[in-house]
Each structure stands twice: as structure tokens, then as C-alpha cells.
Amino acid sequence: MTIHIGAEPGDIAETVLLPGDPRRAEWAARTFLEAPRKVNAVRGMLGYTGTWNGHPVTVHGSGMGMPSLSIYVNELIRDYGAKTIIRIGSAGAMQERVAIRDLVIAMTASSLATPSSGMFRELNFAPCADFGLLGAAVGAAEAQGHRVHVGGIYSSDTFYDERADLNEAMVRHGVLAVEMETAELYILAARYGVRALSVLTISDHLITGEDLPSADRERSFGEMVEVALAAAFA
Ligand SMILES: O=P(O)(O)O[C@H]1O[C@H](CO)[C@@H](O)[C@H]1O
Ligand SMILES: O=c1cc[nH]c(=O)[nH]1
């Protein structure tokens, strides 16, 4: 057990799917895993472990934002031996061609700062996805017939953003979508030498103003779960 995860040693699989929403973790585990059992509920941050096609898999919430994700990812890797972590998150589209419910697979994530910024000092470290996972996820998404976009995203610290000029600059530079965790996930994966990827589903659109309700964000993003599982064991 750690400060934030109540699981016993061995309760967490080497492969972890990591949504921000703990209730999405519960839904994904109950929907896609065989024999899921709850392994964490400390602070309401739900984690479940089961199997997928015979492979042990944990689905665990990260909470919202990079400081929260940093706590869980540090403990999952250092204390439980996680080797592959795939974020399954929602995101806001920043390009017209990216539509609601499309998948976005993040090659890299820009940010103003991350919890690791203090450690890097003047260095602008470039967080990047694991290439093998990325290729496998793109292949799985295309094979499953999903609309998928691959490229850079923005990991923001503010959901209610006031920097229209900054968003405009990112749109001009092709940033596909905004969310709040991937940059730090990729940095921690690099630090510990494990594999990481973010597979995202578009839940709202910064240009058109469309959005999906919270129930859809919790329980209807199964395509990204299927892509993440296929990529993890490709
Ligand atoms: O749906 P999740 O995975 O939580 O991801 C997105 O949704 C939250 C904001 O509503 C942030 O965590 C953001 O990154
Ligand atoms: O961080 C996020 C997540 C979904 N949609 C957004 O606009 N921002």
C-alpha cells in the first residue's frame, strides 16, 4: 500500500489504463475486463484489476490535472512496477477537421509548465509517446475503422482558459486538442524508462462550441479503450 493507493503488492498489473475520471475507470474495467476486482478506492480514486484476452490489466483513475496524475503515476511505477501506462482521456478539439468523438493519439504534448518544470530548470524538455505503442494504437484504430488523428496536443493547467492568444498560436501550429495530463505522463515515463501513450476522445470543440454531457464522458468512450488494449498487447 502507498499513501494514495490501497492495493496490495501484486494487485496492480504491469499494464495500466489511466483515465482521469475514476468512474470511467470503473466503467471501463467492468465493460472490457474479465473478472474485474476493485484494488483501490483511497480518496475515491477507483482502480480495478482484471484480465483482457488473458493479459492482466489495471484500470485506474489519475484525477484531473498533472499534479494529481503525477502522484498516481509515480506510485504505480515505483511501488507497483507498472511498465506500460496508457491514458484514456477526454479532450477538446482545437482544429476544425477534428470532430466530436474522433480519436486523437498524442505524439507529444506542449505545456506552459508541468510538475517537472522545476527539475528541468531552463530546459524545455520535449515529452513524447512511446513509438511502439503509438504505431500499434494507430494501426488498431485504423483496423477498427475509427476516425483518428495523430499529432501534438496541449496539456493545460486550466480548464477555464483565459489565453485566447495562446490557443490561437497553438491552432496555427497544428495542435490537435487540449487536455490536462499527457505532458507529465510522458515525462514520468521517460524518467522511469517505461512505456506511455495517450489515446483521447474528443468530448467538446473549442471552435464550434459543441460538447458532450458528463455521462457520455464517463461511460461511452469505448473505442479508445479498445484501441488502448490492442496497442498494449500488440
Ligand atoms: O476525461 P479526463 O481523462 O479526466 O481528461 C480531461 O477531462 C478533465 C477536464 O474535464 C481533465 O482531466 C482533462 O484532461
Ligand atoms: O482539458 C480539457 C478536456 C476536455 N475538453 C477541454 O476543453 N479541455
UniProtKB/TrEMBL annotation:
Any one Gene Ontology cellular component term annotated for this protein: cytosol
Pfam families: PNP_UDP_1 (PF01048)
Superkingdom of source: Bacteria
Principal EC category: transferase
The protein's assembly and partners: Homohexamer; trimer of homodimers.
Function: Catalyzes the reversible phosphorolytic breakdown of the N-glycosidic bond in the beta-(deoxy)ribonucleoside molecules, with the formation of the corresponding free purine bases and pentose-1-phosphate.
Domain Nucleoside phosphorylase per the UniProt entry, residue ranges: 16-219
One of the GO biological process terms: purine nucleoside catabolic process
Keyword terms of this UniProt record: Glycosyltransferase, Transferase
Chain sites annotated for binding a purine D-ribonucleoside: H4, E179, M180, E181, S203, D204
A molecular-function term among this protein's GO annotations: purine-nucleoside phosphorylase activity
Residues the entry annotates as binding phosphate: G20, R24, R43, R87, I88, G89, S90
Family statement: Belongs to the PNP/UDP phosphorylase family.
Substrates-to-products reaction catalysed: uridine + phosphate = alpha-D-ribose 1-phosphate + uracil; a purine 2'-deoxy-D-ribonucleoside + phosphate = a purine nucleobase + 2-deoxy-alpha-D-ribose 1-phosphate; a purine D-ribonucleoside + phosphate = a purine nucleobase + alpha-D-ribose 1-phosphate
Gene3D superfamilies, per the entry: Nucleoside phosphorylase domain (3.40.50.1580)
Protein EC: 2.4.2.1
Site residues (Important for catalytic activity), renumbered to this chain: R217
Catalytic residues identified in the record: D204
Protein name per the record: Purine nucleoside phosphorylase DeoD-type
